[in-house]
């Protein structure tokens, strides 16, 4: 790191630089702990109203930085034949788009924009027992993350409707042996998402490209009802920078925040569910990591509490709604 020269003693300069670096690396504001947040959430209660001018202002910021309507997925329009596409999750690696890959891209973003009411469903344990399924499914467009289970035991809490589901290449590797052996179980496990879009970050990491393309061919070969969209690495990179400027310090944003950001631009109204990265619910009782299991995410990769705080700020500004409590009041005893 280069430092400007001054006439101050060297030791003082070093001290000043290290303080500045510390302020840069660590957020200046202390993250509130989970008990404080629970108190704040309870104080606000269920009341929430949209602030249209705040929403429009935020949407303009997102559109200016990241052009979600145009760049959300890889299309023939935004990724021409022969272009050098840079991976967003790797340093200095790119891929030249040849005809074999290019021909898999849709002509243009396939949604009719704007989408109206959108539900973005994170997989947090807070959804368990929430009875939010009906409310989630009442939206026009439901986005779910990382192939979450939707079997009947969960329907009451998370619903079943899905217009878009994301799949990380690591899931293809771990759960479906990279689709190198039997591919049927992959096709079978996607049936629950009916005719949704399957959103694959195929161009984020080098080792994710092949499994993602295999997922495409598998669904095509089995004439599955789902349509694959590849995440555009330029979109993901820009959204990452956008949140970094707002103070989210992590190696990579979670899929959930990528999806909530896209939804804020693509949809007229956004409600997010299952975004609560803490270990207690609003009553202070311990909860599991996900609504379906208790496997913690890889540590040191995402910064979920920081991401949650940003969503909570948007909630307080009337830009999106963060649903945390039960969707239907509990039955009187
Ligand atoms: C709505 O948001 C705008 C812009 O952020 C702000 O100036 C205004 O006070 C907000 N209105 C209400 C009712 O909170
Ligand atoms: C590119 O691929 C498409 C679909 O596979 C094929 O129809 C077309 O002929 C190919 N074009 C070239 C120039 O190879
Ligand atoms: C596609 O959807 C139709 C109508 O819902 C259904 O009958 C069919 O079995 C589905 N096909 C596959 C491969 O899932």
UniProtKB/TrEMBL annotation:
Tell me the keywords, alphabetical order: Disulfide bond, Glycoprotein, Glycosyltransferase, Golgi apparatus, Lipid metabolism, Membrane, Signal-anchor, Sphingolipid metabolism, Transferase, Transmembrane, Transmembrane helix
Pfam families this protein is in? Glyco_transf_29
Keyword Transcription attached: no
Q: What is its main location?
A: Golgi
GO CC annotation: Golgi membrane
Q: How does it sit in the membrane?
A: Single-pass type II membrane protein
Might you give the EC number(s) for this enzyme?
Answer: 2.4.3.8
* Reactions that this protein is recorded to catalyse: a ganglioside GT1b (d18:1(4E)) + CMP-N-acetyl-beta-neuraminate = a ganglioside GQ1b (d18:1(4E)) + CMP + H(+); a ganglioside GM3 (d18:1(4E)) + CMP-N-acetyl-beta-neuraminate = a ganglioside GD3 (d18:1(4E)) + CMP + H(+); a ganglioside GM1b (d18:1(4E)) + CMP-N-acetyl-beta-neuraminate = a ganglioside GD1c (d18:1(4E)) + CMP + H(+); an N-acetyl-alpha-neuraminyl-(2->3)-beta-D-galactosyl derivative + CMP-N-acetyl-beta-neuraminate = an N-acetyl-alpha-neuraminyl-(2->8)-N-acetyl-alpha-neuraminyl-(2->3)-beta-D-galactosyl derivative + CMP + H(+)
Q: Looking at the keywords, is Membrane present?
A: yes
What's the protein here called? Alpha-N-acetylneuraminide alpha-2,8-sialyltransferase
Species, as recorded: Eleutherodactylus coqui (Puerto Rican coqui)
């Amino acid at each position: 790191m280069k430092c400007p020269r001054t006439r101050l003693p060297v030791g003082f300069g070093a001290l000043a630089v290290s303080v500045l670096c510390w302020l840069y690396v660590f957020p200046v504001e202390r993250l509130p702990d989970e008990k404080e947040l629970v108190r704040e959430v309870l104080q606000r209660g269920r009341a929430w109203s949209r602030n249209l001018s705040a929403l429009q202002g935020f949407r303009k910021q997102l559109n200016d930085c990241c052009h979600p309507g145009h760049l959300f997925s890889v299309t023939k329009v935004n990724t021409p034949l022969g272009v050098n596409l840079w991976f967003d999750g790797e340093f200095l690696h790119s891929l030249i788009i040849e005809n074999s890959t290019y021909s898999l891209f849709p002509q243009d973003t396939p949604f009719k924009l704007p989408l109206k009411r959108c539900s973005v469903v994170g997989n947090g344990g807070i959804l368990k027992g929430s009875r939010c399924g009906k409310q989630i499914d009442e939206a026009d467009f439901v986005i779910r993350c990382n192939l979450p289970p939707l079997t009947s035991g969960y329907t009451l809490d998370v619903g079943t409707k899905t217009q878009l589901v994301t799949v990380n290449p690591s899931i293809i590797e771990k759960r479906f042996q990279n689709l190198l052996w039997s591919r049927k179980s992959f096709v079978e496990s996607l049936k629950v998402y009916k005719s949704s879009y399957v959103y694959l970050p195929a161009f984020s990491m080098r080792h994710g490209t092949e499994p993602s393309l295999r997922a495409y061919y598998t669904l095509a070969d089995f004439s599955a009802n789902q349509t694959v969209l590849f995440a555009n690495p330029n979109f993901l990179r820009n959204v990452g920078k956008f949140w970094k400027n707002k103070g989210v310090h992590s190696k990579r944003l979670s899929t959930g925040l990528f999806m909530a950001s896209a939804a804020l631009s693509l949809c007229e109204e956004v409600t997010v569910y299952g975004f609560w990265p803490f270990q207690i619910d609003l009553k202070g009782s311990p909860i599991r990591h996900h609504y379906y299991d208790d496997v913690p995410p890889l540590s040191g990769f995402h910064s979920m509490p920081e991401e949650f705080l940003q969503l909570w700020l948007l909630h307080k500004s009337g830009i999106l709604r963060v649903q945390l409590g039960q969707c239907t009041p509990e039955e009187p005893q």
